[in-house]
């Protein structure tokens, strides 16, 4: 464990960090009023974000709720419900003071007891909650506005862990009867909108909360001032992408989420709609089983990396070169502090036959099929990349057996090291490298290399941001030597808007910030 | 008649239970589990195993079967794993939409089918007959999802007469309800109407050659009376059979239409429940569909008896 002597100097009080890192994103103000109608592709049976790690199911909570911190457009945590935060002398305690006068939608005052209740539940949840549990030994509330986190060791990552949607603060009364796997009834939170209706398999209605206490800092991502332009925000479930597109064209909705790039021309050619392309959205990847089976052979993984040509795989999956980049960074958004290309071999994305042969000879590979899992629900991202890769690998005598199954089977099979050798996946930008699922040794793929484990321990306990970045670059370099996972490229996200929609999100860090999006002028 | 109905009612029980038992076994024996789908793709194997244990999914399958059987007998279908509310409360919310969709689609199909069948039979081998028969063959061949997208393009996107998708319940007003149910019902019903058109046409042609029709005409009865009072009643028998089968088909096959038009119906709910491995909800959905189909078949048999007095079930 490394303890930085300048801990307190480096970890400034939260308010000063907020000023430094916030980046105002609004060029103009918009009038309040109207209804913002959004066509979404899927919704969860419950709006509670704690009970699932499927990020697509957090959209409602992202509008209605807030956490102690929120991420700005550089993916840096900024205080939200917190007024300030400060680490203790030895770095093993973090004290957060709450903003004064905050209330929940129910009218109850927000106190430190609510924070403790919410975060105790979050600690037991899957995903980031597990990382939080491993970092924080205890959460206490010495008074109504103060929360103290006792850390297992000095760690700078707590604000980042608390900036995620799963770490939102709900009233302790609303958590009665709920558990980390049992959802709350409704959401009693502090955000700018109140959840007024949640109909699974139909839609969501959220109404502006006039008593919302906005922060005064400039808006940046999910941090700073939240404008709450629309009187109402309505999510309408439309599973079919073409129906979302058509509903946008006919003016039934103002925003159509998650559209395939094939619809770009149709939306651009209509004077009433616009296709918004958000670059650097997420990495398309394959994750290998490093624990057992044929892919546990590091030389085979190296041979696979050097055999792959990334451009055809991205083209097969995304369909249009304007919607992807061949960027090797494991942090897809260059706006992130953690973005790096450290350790990437020269000529990323171009096959190198000599190296393929060299590593194949050094491996124990004898033509056994690589069992490559893909989820049928993710045909474009999973299957099309896998089938293109298998064709490329076949030229070198590496055989792939694509195992396509529904998502439920895929999730179960990939968790069992005996059932798979590789699986298709994708990875967004994370707030901190310690949150990256692939780097968790118990995540499917099971990358337990001792050097990596040591580096992960170092990055989790090192305080200085620049030192942490240097450690992450070592991890990045190690990943580009051992290839526990391979990235093909970074894909953009495309969605559609009606003309007149104000301040639509154009960077990945703003995904879901509908409280800062203005509806088009109403007739 | 009552004795017959009693016997038929008893036969419904195995008709319902056999698919239920099959569904129970297939769900448990197929890979994938609700715990993984609940926790999501970032959950670790340990977290999934802990939730499996909490949900009782790690119990031997025969214990799960006995618990399930006890629930069925006591009319307790359990709680949905994902919604965390009783299945008996969830199913009616979704089944109502599908039943309404089926009723409207069936009504459209019967009206279109009987009308066109009658018109073509009365104009045998004329251009209108050939045109309608050709269109009917085309209608039977068209996949419903394709026809649904075509309807959306024409009537919602181009003409803007109807909304593209969504659902307003009847409580929102008949106009609002009709606006959201008409296109899905038409998409669902058009294939069945094509079947009914052909059935009605051939049946009508047969009946029109029957001696009693010739007798009626010879007695100088008006053509409308001959057709409406004598021919149609007999000719409608096979159409009733097709209508019954169509209703069953539409109840179980509305999934694609419900997904395209974003209708919160039973078919879509069932598909999503299967995807999530929400065992109690899938079993409840299958039970509902089995029950409705069984009752529907019984109703068709009763209608037979009413329409055709020669049928004696004794």
TrEMBL record, chain A:
Keywords: Signal
Name used for this protein in its record: Peptide ABC transporter substrate-binding protein
Family listed: Belongs to the bacterial solute-binding protein 5 family.
Source organism, top-level taxon: Bacteria
InterPro entries, per the entry: Peptide/Ni-bd, SBP_5, SBP_5_CS, SBP_5_dom
Family matches, as PANTHER family: D,D-DIPEPTIDE-BINDING PERIPLASMIC PROTEIN DDPA-RELATED, PERIPLASMIC BINDING COMPONENT OF ABC TRANSPORTER
Gene3D superfamilies in alphabetical order: Dipeptide-binding Protein, Domain 1 (3.90.76.10), Dipeptide-binding Protein, Domain 3 (3.10.105.10), Periplasmic binding protein-like II (3.40.190.10)
Pfam families: SBP_bac_5 (PF00496)
Places the protein is found: Periplasm
Residues of the signal peptide: 1-27
UniProt entry tagged with the keyword Signal: yes
Organism: Devosia nitrariae
Solute-binding protein family domain mapped to chain residues: 76-439
From TrEMBL, chain B:
Domain ABC transmembrane type-1: 95-304
Subcellular location: Cell membrane
Protein species of origin: Devosia nitrariae
Keywords: Cell membrane, Membrane, Transmembrane, Transmembrane helix, Transport
Membrane-topology descriptor: Multi-pass membrane protein
Protein's UniProt name: ABC transporter permease
Homology family: Belongs to the binding-protein-dependent transport system permease family.
UniProt main location, coarse: membrane
Membrane-spanning residues: 9-29, 94-119, 131-159, 171-190, 239-266, 286-307
InterPro entries given in the database record: BPD_transp_1_N, MetI-like, MetI-like_sf
PANTHER family documented for this protein: DIPEPTIDE TRANSPORT SYSTEM PERMEASE PROTEIN DPPB-RELATED
